[in-house]
Amino acid sequence: MHVPDGFINAPTSAATGVIAAGAVAVSLRGARRELDERTAPLAGLVAAFIFAVQMLNFPVAAGTSGHLLGGALAAILVGPYTGVLCVSVVLLMQGILFADGGLTALGVNITNMAIVTTVVAYALFRGLVKVLPRTRRSVTVASFVAALFSVPAAALAFTLMYAVGGTTDVSIGKVATAMIGVHVLIGIGEAVITALTVGAVIAVRPDLVYGARGLTQRLKLRVNGELVDAPEPEPAPVAARTSHRTVWAAGLAASLVLAGFVSFYASADPDGLEKVAADHGIDKKTEEHAVADSPLADYGVKDVTDARLSGGLAGVIGVGVTVVAGSTVFWAVRRRRDDDTSPSNTSNTSNTSTDVSDSTSTTSV
To answer: How far apart are CA 192 and CA 143, in angstroms?
Structure first.
C-alpha cells in the first residue's frame, strides 16, 4: 500500500506529514518506557524482518497481490510506540533507497501503514486478551484478529485521504468499495503471517513478546478451604532458555533468506493499491519518484543483469541497512531512557527536593 507521489495533493500530503512527524515524536518518548534489555535489541530486528516480508507479495485475487504492512506485528512484539517507529524506519528506507513510496507522500504512508495499523491492531489486541483465556494460544488468536482488521483500516484511511486530497476525479464510493474489498483479502495474509511469527517467538521466549507480558495466570492453591495464590515459581536459568541473542540471530538469518532468496518467487502482480489505482484511474497524475535512478530502485542492484542475483542482493542490502538504522534509533532511545533514570539524575532530583523542602521549612519558621 505504498502511495506514490501524485496520488494525493500537496496540502493534504503536508498535513499528513505534520501528523506523521507528531506521531513519531510522541512515539520516541513512548518508546522509552517500552524498550528495555529485552525489547531494545529485538526492535531493530523487527524492522528488518518487516522489510524482508514486505518483499514477499502473495496473490489474493485474479491479477492482484498483497504484502505485509507490519503494524500489528511490530506493536504486539515490541509495543505500540516502538511499533510505529519500526514501520516508519522501514518506510523511510524503502522511499530513500528503493524508490518505493513517494517522498512527498511519506507522511501519507507513515500515517496509513505505521500509525493507523498500529493503533487499530494494538487496541483490538488488548481488548481481546482481556476477555480471552490467559494463555499463549489466546495471544496468537488475538494477534490474528488484530492484524486482520488493521489492513482494511489502513485502506479506509487512504480512502478518506483521497476523498480530501485526491488528484483525480473518481467516485469515492468506488474507491472505498475496491480498496476495502481487496484489502480484506490482504488482511487474511497479514493475519496469518503475524500470528505465525508471534506464535513462533512465544514458543521459545514468551518474555520477549511485549503484548504477552502480564498474562501469566497465577496458580491457585486451596488452603483451609480457601483459594490463595501459589508462590511465584523460580525463573528458569538463562542456560535453560533460548538466549535472546540466539533469537536475534535466528530472526536476522530468516530475514536475509526471505529477502535474499524467497523474494524471487514473490507474486509479480500489482498490489491492492496499484490494482485499484490502475482500474479506477487514480494513477493518472502519478509523478516519477525523486530517486527513480537510485542504484537500488525497484529492489534491484543497478548494472547486475541476472534478475535473481540483482533482487537477492538488493534484499540483503535492504535488510542490513534497515537493521542498522533501526538498531541505531532504538539504541539511542534506550540510552536516553537510561540517562533519565541514572543514579546521578535521581540524586540531583532528590537534592533539589531536599533544598526546596529546607527552603520551605525555613520560610515557615
So the answer is: 9
Q: What is the pLDDT of residue 245?
A: 84
User: What span, in angstroms and rounded, lies between the C-alpha atoms of 198 and 144?
Assistant: 9
Residue 48 near residue 135, CB atoms below 8 Å = no
Rounded to an integer, the average pLDDT of 214-235 is: 56
Q: How confident is the model at residue 61 (pLDDT cuts 50, 70, 90)?
A: confident
Neighbours of 308 (CB within 10 A): 13
- C-alpha distances in angstroms, 217 versus 144, 213, 231? 22, 11, 12
What is the rounded end-to-end Cα distance, in angstroms, of the chain? 68
Alpha carbon 6 to its chain's center = 25
Compute the CA torsion angle 163, 166, 169, 175 (nearest 10 deg). Answer: -50
Contact 278, 270 (CB under 8 A): yes
Report the DSSP beta bridge partners of residue 59. Answer: 65
What's the helix, strand, coil split of the chain in %, to 5?
70, 5, 25
- Rounded to the nearest 5°, which phi and psi values hold at 29? -75, -45
Which residue in this structure is represented by grid cell 475496491? 178
- Whether 7 and 105 have beta carbons less than 8 Å apart is answered as yes
Hey, where are the domains in the chain? 10-215+252-335
For 105-159, write each residue's pLDDT tens digit: 999 999 999 999 999 999 999 999 999 998 889 999 999 999 999 999 999 999 9
Fold of 10-215+252-335: Arp2/3 complex 21 kDa subunit ARPC3 (1.10.1760)
Which pLDDT score, from 0 to 100, does residue 336 have?
78
Q: Give me the helix-helix angle, 307-340 and 244-260, nearest 10°.
A: 150
Which neighbouring-strand residues pair with 228? Answer: 221
Give the confidence band of 335 by pLDDT, cuts at 50, 70, 90: confident
